[in-house]
Design brief:
This protein is mainly beta and 773 residues long. It is 9% helix and 36% strand. The chain is built from seven helices and 49 strands. Strand 25 and strand 26 form a beta hairpin. The longest helix has 17 residues.
């Protein structure tokens, strides 16, 4: 509880006193007031940070310190000042005025004290009985004095933000004074940030700090705060107006945050490369990470990654833990890219403190505001401890997922709200995870929320609803329509089939059909969309033909029966893999014993480090040869088609051979090779038929920048290539198709196949040719 008190005497103007002397006098003259009033929460209930409090405890011989934050923008070690006189001069504080004192974390450097007059604080509500309340500083005390905190409390937690920046500096909950890492700078604890660039410039990292603070709502049921940063064309900054919002509700153990990005027409060109919220949690408490039911583990400390305690691997994000604080982690690889997840499956993830048992969870109630659709992968959590909510970024997709604004284009988008949920337990950490999952479902059921104070957030009554039945017709499989069982159906901005993967400016609304192909898409924002889809077990992308769909406020649309006719020229002669937009079904080897991550020994083995080098070890004497009819793709088709690492450490292209038998080769007709790609990083596939000495019959050219091979992703962006093969290149009997991955400039280039299918000409041609024989 921060100390509030009254000054017992006025000092003589110009009188100076040392910092230690002033603190001693203040501690003697302060008297505690109403227990429920919480003007500031930089006092320590349970403990005092060592470098901020140890010397003061020794100095005054007291067990606990109630007031711990004194701040000056430019502290000068050893400087002396007539503190109360300075406050009186610059803020007009009278004798006997109530004040609060804070002590900066730089106390070890003899920072100067700053006294705040309560009269200069707007106490909007009292944080009692679970009713949200705020206290906010209203003005600076002179040009050097900056009173700048906002505190929201609701009986469960206290949330402290800078004023007017809106950076979260402290979260108090469950017996932990600060869930965030107090050693970090205030702009590196809980913050929104973006990365942007000029059209031909380099990336600029930007922590979004507001310049105007507003209380949007302050009632018995909720508090909503706005931290607004307008664009200033005279400054070097991203051409966006950004409004960050924080919301605390009555009876809710957590808080919400969202942001409105606004670009009016006519503003200058730029690229937007990352938008996210980051939480840097206290490393003294949080060391257990949970991102799914099966992906949970004790994590390293950040110091374990220091050069003296680790060995850096092929890129800086990946290290071997050589001397970790926890000896059980010795020899493991730590790499943040191992802990990514898809939009469609990322509902809740977070961290757990064991003493006390407290959980910090990032809950995403909808991914309509995230870029790239349901399959887009983003970072979730990693050593730090760091917890993320990434709304926009290039990971596992490349720069095509980063919006480019040109020619004065206007744009506005609401990112969020997302929910930071806090829970505690008296039993075990599993109960925290199970409770967080239940809360995530409750948040999903409550979407879209009814309480956001921004008119840019669309409420449920203003949204639309779309339904229909989805079928597949492939005459080479069945003469009847087949239900598109468990298909993914979505509304996204108008474009070509599959363009939703690279959409980065609009909203997307997806659902999964039932086993009969029935689907419903609810809570769709008014606007114009195309309907897209794909079906597990079926290649290609669906897009509803005809006019785009315009959703009006509250509108309901039954689209009836929709039929997808996937690419097909003739019957299947052979195929490799199951079409699900992933390479997970192919052979994923065990990692090198030097690079084992125990979490992924029995699940998602593709997340192990260094698997791109295993191909050269397994296929040491020759490249992969797959024989149709005897080889089995789950164990004989390597999941990465990349490069070969030579003995001198250089790289060379690899050529895979597919052997197959043809009873009949029709020389004047075309066969079709379908190559479905689950991901590519500068891959370049050349297709040869029966001879590597002749020219390739098809070349993709270098394509893709999803970097999924290095970042342990089993897919990136989906692509489908259809290759016509002249029957004259084939023969009756044994044949071979060669696939050369021709780019060998790094160990991380190559492709991840999803499915390969070889089709004969249409049945009528085959029947005629057979009759002639």
């Amino acid at each position: 509880m921060p100390v509030l008190g009254k000054c017992l005497q006025k000092r003589v103007p110009g009188d100076k006193i040392s910092l230690a002397g002033r603190i001693e006098e203040l501690l003697h003259c302060l008297e505690l007031t109403h227990a429920g009033v919480r003007i500031d929460h930089h006092g320590c209930r349970g403990h005092v940070p060592d470098r901020a409090g140890h010397s003061i405890k020794q100095l005054f011989g007291i067990a606990e310190i109630a007031v711990l934050h004194i701040r000056l923008d430019h502290p000068v070690p050893g400087e002396e000042i007539g503190l109360l006189d300075r406050v009186e001069d610059e803020a007009g504080v009278a004798d006997g005025a109530t004040f609060a004192v804070r002590l900066d974390e730089e106390i070890g450097k003899e920072s100067i004290a700053c006294v705040w007059a309560v009269e200069d604080l707007r106490v909007e509500a009292i944080g009692l009985g679970g009713i949200p309340g705020i206290s906010a500083s209203s003005q600076a005390l002179g040009e050097r004095w900056n009173v700048r905190d906002v505190v929201i409390s609701n009986g469960f937690l206290e949330l402290t933000l800078t004023n007017p920046g809106g950076d979260v500096t402290r979260i108090s909950y469950g017996g932990i004074t600060d869930l965030l890492e107090w050693r970090n700078k205030e702009t590196n604890r809980g913050y929104w940030n973006l990365v942007w660039s000029l059209p031909d410039g380099g990336d600029k990292f930007d922590v979004i700090s507001g310049t105007k603070f507003t209380v949007v709502s302050n009632t018995e049921d909720m508090v909503e705060l706005s931290f607004y940063r307008p664009y200033d064309s005279t400054e070097t900054m991203v051409p966006l107006n950004i409004d960050k919002r924080f919301v605390v509700l009555r009876g809710r153990s957590g808080f919400y945050t969202y942001a409105i990005f606004d670009r009016p027409y006519g503003w200058s060109d730029f690229n937007l490369n990352v938008v996210r919220v980051a939480w840097k949690l206290g490393q003294d408490n949080f060391d257990f990470m949970a991102i799914s039911d099966t992906k949970q583990r004790v994590m390293p400390y950040p110091q374990d990654r220091y050069p003296q305690n680790s060995e850096t691997l092929a890129y800086k994000e990946a290290v071997i833990l050589v001397n970790p604080k926890n000896p059980n982690l010795k020899g493991e690889v730590d790499d943040k890219y191992q802990y990514s997840g898809e939009n469609r499956s990322t509902k809740v993830h977070g961290w757990i403190s064991f003493d006390p048992l407290v959980g910090f969870w990032m809950i995403t109630p909808s991914y309509e505001f995230k870029t790239g659709g349901p399959l887009k992968q983003n970072l979730l959590s990693h050593t730090g401890p760091t917890c993320l909510s990434v709304f926009l970024g290039s990971h596992y997709g490349g720069i095509t997922l980063c919006p480019k604004f040109r020619d004065g284009e206007a744009w506005k988008k609401v990112f969020g709200p997302v929910f930071v949920y806090l829970n505690s337990s008296s039993t075990d950490h599993r109960s925290l995870w199970e409770d967080a999952k239940l809360q995530a479902e409750a948040e999903i059921d409550a979407w879209p929320y009814s309480w956001p104070g921004s008119s840019d957030f669309t409420l449920a009554a203003e949204r639309g609803h779309v339904s229909g039945e989805f079928y597949v017709f492939d005459s080479f499989l069945s003469s009847k329509l087949l239900p598109a069982a468990f298909a993914w159906i979505g509304l996204a901005p108008p474009g070509d089939a599959g363009s939703w993967q690279e959409d980065s400016k609009g909203y997307q609304f997806w659902t999964q059909a039932d086993k009969f192909g029935n689907f419903e898409i609810s809570n769709v924002l008014p606007g114009t969309y195309d309907l897209y889809g794909w079906v597990p077990g079926v290649i290609g992308d669906y897009k509803k033909q005809g006019d785009s769909i315009t959703i009006s406020q509250g509108g309901s649309y039954d689209l009836g029966s929709l039929v997808y006719k996937p690419p097909r020229n003739g019957p299947t002669l052979w195929e490799i893999g199951f079409p699900d937009r992933s390479a997970a079904g192919f052979f994923v080897p065990s990692p090198d014993s030097k690079y084992v991550s125990k979490l992924f020994v029995y699940q998602e083995r593709f997340r192990q480090y260094g698997l791109w080098t295993r191909y050269s070890e397994i296929y040491s004497s020759q490249d992969l040869v797959y024989t149709v009819g005897s080889s089995q793709w789950p164990k004989d088709w390597f999941f990465i088609h990349g490069v070969r690492v030579k003995s001198d450490g250089s790289f060379e292209p690899t050529t895979w051979e597919i052997k197959f038998w043809l009873d009949l080769a029709i020389k004047d007709e075309s066969y079709t090779l379908r190559i479905a790609i689950a991901g590519s990083h500068y891959g370049n596939i050349k297709v040869y038929v029966n001879s590597l000495s002749s020219s390739p019959c098809f070349v993709t050219g270098m394509f893709g920048r999803d970097n999924a091979i290095a970042r342990h992703g089993i897919h990136g962006l989906y692509r489908l290539y259809s290759v016509d093969i002249n029957g004259g290149l084939l023969k009756r009997g044994d044949n071979s198709i060669y696939l050369t991955q021709a780019n060998s400039r790094s160990p991380f280039v190559g492709v991840l196949y999803d499915h390969i299918r070889f089709e004969a000409p249409c049945c009528e041609i085959i029947e005629e040719a057979s009759s002639s024989l």
